[in-house]
Amino acid sequence: MKTKLLTILCVGLVASCANKKSTNSVESKTELPYYQEATFTPKWIAEDSPELEKFHKIPSFSLINQLGEIVTEKSLEGKIYVTDFFFTSCPGICPKMTTNMKLVQEAFLEDDNVMLLSHSVTPVMDSVSVLKSYADRNDIDAKKWQLLTGDRQVIYDLGRKSYFVEEDQGLEKTEDEFLHTENFVLIDQNRHIRGIYNGLNKVSVAQLIADIKTLKESLATEKSEQPF
């Protein structure tokens, strides 16, 4: 009886360890799903499917970066990018998000096809000069990582209606409510949403980095298959 009980306990312990390992590991993927609404329900679509022509895309926008340059969707044409929402005076989650976004910056620092965008949710306070000081303090490379300010309504509409950064938990906000979220969102070269990640969790950020590499491989394959 004791031997049987010991066997059961050992099996349970092994299973428990295996489960803990799986929750802290990065999943290797051959392709990524698409997302088009706030529940982030994944949809698997072939890259050459006509369905993508009408699928949700990040709309046109015009904002200003830490160098005082205008940044639009055309600035990101043909590029993969990661986006989040922050503010420079944030004492809570933003510093850790910045630290973790720096991991993405380091992973693709020499890759011109990958960009990072961080939108200020307090654009009145986060002027170009304030963003530049924040970038300098945090070793943010302007060639890789754009800190954006501009019209508050444009930024909040992008966050809530285009990137769905707050809506993954089904929480609806009014226009007057403050936008605050730890989520990073992955956008492909065609402005489609391909993933959402917890910017406070290093394992989630590691998955983001792996998924960017998956998108890059997919893009390279797509280009190689195009006729000359």
UniProtKB/TrEMBL annotation:
Top-level taxonomy: Bacteria, Pseudomonadati, Bacteroidota, Cytophagia, Cytophagales
Keyword Signal: yes
Gene Ontology molecular function: any one: metal ion binding
Domain Thioredoxin as annotated: residue spans: 52-217
Family in the record: Belongs to the SCO1/2 family.
Pfam families: SCO1-SenC
Source organism of this protein record: Roseivirga misakiensis
Keyword set, alphabetical order: Copper, Disulfide bond, Metal-binding, Signal
Domain of life of the source: Bacteria
Transmembrane segments: none
Alphabetical list of PROSITE patterns matching this protein: PROKAR_LIPOPROTEIN, THIOREDOXIN_2
This protein's name: Electron transporter
Cystines in this chain: C90-C94
Range of residues in the leader sequence: 1-20
Residues noted as binding Cu cation in the record, renumbered to the chain: C90, C94, H180
